[in-house]
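so i finally got all the pieces together for this one. its two components total, 693 residues if u count the protein bits. some of the lines might not be protein, just check the labels. i wanna see the whole assembly predicted at once instead of chain by chain like last time, that was a mess tbh
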Amino acid sequence: MHVLLVEDDPRVSGLVQRGLEPLGFQVEVAGDGVRGLERALDGTPEIVILDLCLPRLDGNAVLAELRRRGGPVPVLVLSALDGVGDRVRALDGGADDFLVKPFSFDELVARLRALVRRPKSLTGTVVEVGDLRIDAFAHRVERGGRVLSLTAKEFALLAYLVRHRGSIVTRAMIAEHVWGQHFGSFSNVIDVYIRYLRAKVDEGAEHKLIHTVRGVGYVLSETRP
Amino acid sequence: MRPIPFRWRVLGPTLVLAAVVAAALVGLVHLRSDSQRRNALTNTLASKTEEVYAVLAADRGSFDLASFLELETRYASSPYEYFFELCAPDGRVLLCSENLPQAGLGPLAEVGSAPLLARRPHPRAVGEEVLVRTQRLPLDVAHAGVAGPVVRVAACLAPLLAASRADLRSNVLAAALALVVLAGALWFVVGRSLRSVSAITRHAASISGTNLRERLPRSGSGDELDRLSEVLNELFAGLERSLAQMESFTADAAHQLRTPLTRIRGELDLVLARPGDLPEETRLSLEAARSELERLVETCARLLLLARLDRGALVHELRGERLDLAVLAQELVEQVAPLAAEKGVEVRLGTSGSAPLPGSRALLAEALLNLLDNAIRYTPPGGRVEVSVHVEGREVLASVQDSGPGIDAQEQALVFRRFFRGRGGGGASGTGLGLAIVRGIARAHGGEAELASAAGTGAHFRLRLPAA
């Protein structure tokens, strides 16, 4: 997978390069905003990792120009600023995700994968994962033909896992997308909900569907990751 | 005790001093004019004695009827009531004015050659007094066979005393009037200068932590008040500078830490991504380092948030937002309910209607979550956390009360301090910044976060925020 990394600090870009390349990403580095914009438009990156504090052209301007010229490539913004305003500005400006430095590698990788494999739409469709059937339109979940009764939050969490089935989702991603929460440590609450969900979805089933990836997050899949 | 207003502190002593001075002046004037009047009377009595002596001397000791009649009429017609009496040294009355009773002026004292002044009871009017001048005359009254007769001339003191009293009364009245005028003038003048001071006080009070950029207006006159404004302005400027330095230091420090933290975290992640390559001991210590790093990252993020709250940077971005705190509290309580349930703690929410206010949803959620998180953490299993949101006057009050051990008396004042960790211990995971952030968020919204419980009862935290 071809990744364009727009980052002016060579030590950070070197690190990301060394971390991502063994995982099958080809990382191209652009050291400033102008060069980054050029490469995002001319090159063929499948995803752009964009730092906000850049020489020559700042990250938000790169993003605005890229979107104005119709570049469809998904952009993950990497920022040392973590104010709500910074996040909102970047997402409103066309970023697809926002990650605050210092980030963990697992978090970065999980988010890149989630962005590249565009989440599958659930609306009005029935999705099956193994013997789990989830009907988002009717808010109806079945496992092995047995109807499960889920609370609204449990359903939202399951729907998020199903949309990203096969990919790891981190607790921070769940907190952001299911609870709309960017601050604070939310992981305890998420762990409790996952436990509830497991009790309803996986209890008594031959194959477990919800798997924990230690220290990273969770994945919904038919096979162990 | 209520403080005494400055106006009274100026007026009180000044008026007391002025009253003392006025009383002393009135007293002095009174004594002086009294003694003048008494001297005048004494002189009159002396000259009247002279007249008697002159008449007697002219008649060479005999009584000329004409001169006697003349003397008598003179005494009778005088505006002051005068009496005179001529006695032998043994007290026998030889002659007295018509207005005296039979007994005359009363018993005669031993008289030398010098005249004698004395106060005696009034010969006719009860309770009044007369001033009597007694003098022995160096001549003989031949027909009565008296050598060195004694002349007593007396005057009633009542008119003199009345005049003295009237004088005193008008002087006291004038002094009192002067005092009243002085008090009024002082009240006005002090009040006027105090108004300028009050204006400075009000203005200075309005310049608080959030708008330190403002300055007091200067009149340019260079007077004491102008200098006060100047000194206060310098103080504000210094305060603003040091606050700005402190804030930018916190922000810079947190920011500068992020790049190296990113790299340390990344390097650890990279090494630990291939745990099989590492000896067990190295892996364990690297994992310990990474989990320690997570805490550092969290502290760093919270410090940066605090720095931004201090600068008011977040509020400008988010003032436009409006939200219902009752709804937000409901959502958050639902979120944490499973967490509490696992611990055996019951979370109850009490709201009365909606509680709309302008503010940042994300920040207020952070504040309430911090309080909820603390409450659940410190409440033992079987305990209860009560959350309530309601509008009171122009404020939205949100309170979180737990049935835990509460907060020690000596820690009450400290809980909102940065990096304060109670003895109760929030476990090793806390950064010691949670409540400081809660307070920062409340203040950024123009409100306050406070501890409402005393020691010995469960902790009760309250947010007071301006309502929409």
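The first strand of chain B starts at residue 82 and ends at 87.
The mean pLDDT of chain B is 82.
anyway lmk what u think
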